[in-house]
Design goal:
By secondary structure, this protein is mainly α. It is built from 3 helices and no strands. The chain starts with 12 loop residues before the first helix and ends with a helix.
Length: about 70
Amino acid sequence: MAFTTYRTRPIGIPARTSLAVGGLVSRVHAWNENRRTRNALSRLSAHELNDIGLSRGDIDRHSSVRF
């Protein structure tokens, strides 16, 4: 049987800082993955992009999503 505990007091400054840094790292990771995908798609020819159902404009449209 598993026991679940609930935090009854607010988290302290170190925990909040850790959460903020973790969020920042996650956002940087997402940005880098988006950058790598955009670069890989940019190297494809128009014919290859058409094969996967994309156009040059789609690359810019999908990569402009803010994180």
